[in-house]
Amino acid sequence: MRSTDDAPVVSVQDVHLSFAGVNAIAGVSFEVQPGELFAIIGPNGAGKTSIFNVLSGVYRPQRGRVEFLGESVLGERPHRIAARGMARTFQNIALFEHLTVLDNLMLGRHQHIGYGFLAAFVWRGRARAEELAHRRFVEEIVDFLELEQWRTLPVGLLPYGVQKRVELGRALAMEPKLLLLDEPVAGMNLEETEDTARYILDIRDELDVPIIMVEHDMGLVMDLADRVMVVDFGVPITTGAPDEVQRHPDVVRAYLGQEVAGG
Amino acid sequence: MTATATERRSRSRGRLRGRPQLYRSYAQELALFNTRPKQVWVGVIVLMSFLLPFLVSDSLLQTLALGFAFAIGALGLNIVTGLAGQVSLGHAFFLGVGAYTAAAISGDPDGRTIGFGITNILVWLPAAGLVAAVAGVLVAPLATRLRGLYLAIVTLGLVFIGEFVFGEWSDLTGGNGVGREAAVPDLFGYDFSRDSESLTADQNLYLLMLVLMLVFALGARNLARSRVGRAFSAVRDRDMAAEMMGINLPRTKTVAFGISSFYAGCAGALIYSIIGFFEPSSFSLLLSVQFIAMVLIGGAGTVSGTIMGALFISLLPTLTRELPSYLPVISAQVTETPNIYQLESILYGLLIVGFLLFEPRGLFGIWVRIRNYWKGWPFSY
User: Fold this and answer.
1) A42: in domain
2) Total number of domains in chain A
3) Is residue A91 part of a domain?
4) A181 and A81, same domain (yes or no)
5) Which domain holds residue A80?
6) Separation between Cα atoms, residue B343 and residue B334, nearest integer Å
7) Domain check: are A164 and A245 in the same one?
């Protein structure tokens, strides 16, 4: 019997996913340990985001096992998996654009707030107390991600980098037990990338949340990740520490192409 | 110690003198009317509304009472379409369900149509809402599988099914071209549709509808700023991300349809209790379109805008009826062309198109622009 401390947070075994004969994922297996920052890299179309979609229940794989916190989540609806404590951000920001930053963050608290629609009509007593309590919680995230000046603005009006940060905040508001980050620094300049790297490290170290990150920025991945998995055309090439992975001949081939004999 | 405790309490409750925009607690910021201008304006408007019946003519009061009842229905459509983003053309059907439920409960037991003789509004109004809400929940599975245009078409079908059923079920509805008497707005023996010692029937109805509309509006506003309303908006803006927040999409859409239909059912019961008599052909597509016009012209997703839109659409006929005396080209006779009824239909269309093109936020958006102009006056921003 394993103690809960070193049981993997996520365990993916031999997952196969195909769309009308096109293999998106072919035999991916990996485990993420508590407190670990696990990165998935690979060329465009390698199936990285598909792995996220399998984890969060958007896609159902044809074969394989997916366990989250020791329980199978295969075939479970996305909102149920989210309620178990899996939060994610999206490659192309998926915020609720007409709502304010605060409302977006409060939506991250959705599953922690308990009152129903009858209490909502009255907005007194329990409903009011809960709204105030969770507002206080959300304010800590505003503070953590330095979003003070944007609080009451609709997120659709905010600059790209800030929107990315709000999305990270929304995922954190869920108090997740696992955080999936899909290209957290895509489209950011150097300064914003460094800020985000700092937030990611803080999340792992201070909040102690294990993270799976898909990212193209090699510098960021090599600096932050504890372990890296490389996938190409849905097939896992190798998994290991960043510096090992970097030198792996198959990885070099996937990224730079194969050397032509005599060339 | 005691002094500081009192001090702390006064600090958390009150505002700093001379700093009206500074919030000192979340409770203060999350209050319904969280700024002084909001408190003053809402107070003044509500007070004026209660004084109005003693200042204007009874015919205008009847129009306004109808406007308030329509506003309740529009608030319902605003919940499902404006907040939750599910386009529904079937609103007229739920109005019909509510109107017939209320009429049947309050109707004369010995009459030609079904009636149970319970005229108390506290019985038939909630019943009308609940039966319509059940109908809405039954229809909701369609909304959980379809979206956008497809949902609009399916809910359109609902109106036609409703029209047919209402037309054929003459025991309940009196049948096409015949109709039946509507619910009687009676509260423990006080009949709002009759003149009482101090108030005329129209004053009575106006005040009743005003109070009910305020209650429904407060409920809608509270809902919008609650966990449930946020979930609705999340589903509207990005349903996939909403699911990742742990929001159950089918359940949320079902709740939205249920609440919206509850409002529609109550509105249907109230509208015809003002008019007194109705027939099945009332619940046609045109009625649904009228409600959509109210929400769009008022400002989708906003409570105050929806009420403005409902009153605007309700007062429109009163304005067009005045036209023939200014523009002799336009006739007040149905048999002549152009007449005011044709003009009204054209105006609905023009207004929807015009607002969508020039002010998608509706009357609410116009109000926001006026407010912002005067906030910054005499500077441009």
Assistant:
1) yes
2) 2
3) no
4) yes
5) 1-85+176-263
6) 11
7) no
The residue of chain B with its CA nearest to that of A97 is: B237
Query: In A, residues 73-112, which contact B (CB 8 Å cutoff)?
Result: 77-79, 82-83, 87-88, 90, 94-99, 103, 106-108, 110-111
Instruction: Find all residues with CB under 8 Å of B97, minimum gap 6, and list them.
Output: B128, B131, B132, B135, B162, B261, B264, B265, B268
Tell me, what CATH number does A73's domain have? 3.40.50.300
Q: Measure CB to CB from residue A96 to each of B26, B228, B234 and give the nearest one.
A: B234
Write the DSSP string, B71-114. Answer: HHHHHHHIIIIIIS----S-HHHHHHHHHHHHHHHHS-TTSSS-
Closest approach of A252 to chain B, Cα-based (Å): 35
Same domain, A16 and A78: yes
The reply to whether A127 and A196 lie within a common domain is no
Instruction: Measure B16 CA to nearest chain A CA, in Å.
Output: 21
Q: State both tokens at A153.
A: 């603005």
Q: Hey, where are the domains in chain B?
A: 58-284
Q: Give chain B positions within 8 Å (CB) of A121.
A: 219, 222-223
Residue A89 neighbours by CB distance under 10 Å: 26
ipTM: 0.90
What does each of the 381 residues of chain B score in pLDDT, given as a tens digit? Answer: 444 554 455 444 566 677 767 788 888 888 888 888 888 989 999 999 999 999 998 889 999 999 999 999 999 999 999 999 999 999 999 999 999 999 999 988 888 888 888 889 999 999 999 999 999 999 888 878 888 889 999 999 999 999 999 999 988 888 888 888 888 888 888 888 888 888 888 999 999 999 999 999 999 999 999 999 999 999 999 999 999 999 999 999 999 999 999 999 999 999 999 998 999 999 999 899 999 999 999 998 899 999 999 999 999 888 888 888 888 787 778 788 888 888 888 888 888 889 889 988 899 999 888 888 888 888 876
CA atoms of B84 and B139, how far apart (whole Å):
15
Domain end call among A124, A154, A174 = A174
Compare CB distances from A79 to B30, B236, B243 and report the shortest one's residue: B243
Residue of A nearest to B25 (CA): A132
Of residues A97, A115, A136, nearest to B237 (C-beta): A97
Hey, is the C-beta of A118 within 8 angstroms of any chain B C-beta?
no
Q: Which of A118, A21, A8, A17 is CA-nearest to residue A71?
A: A8
What pTM was computed for the model?
0.90
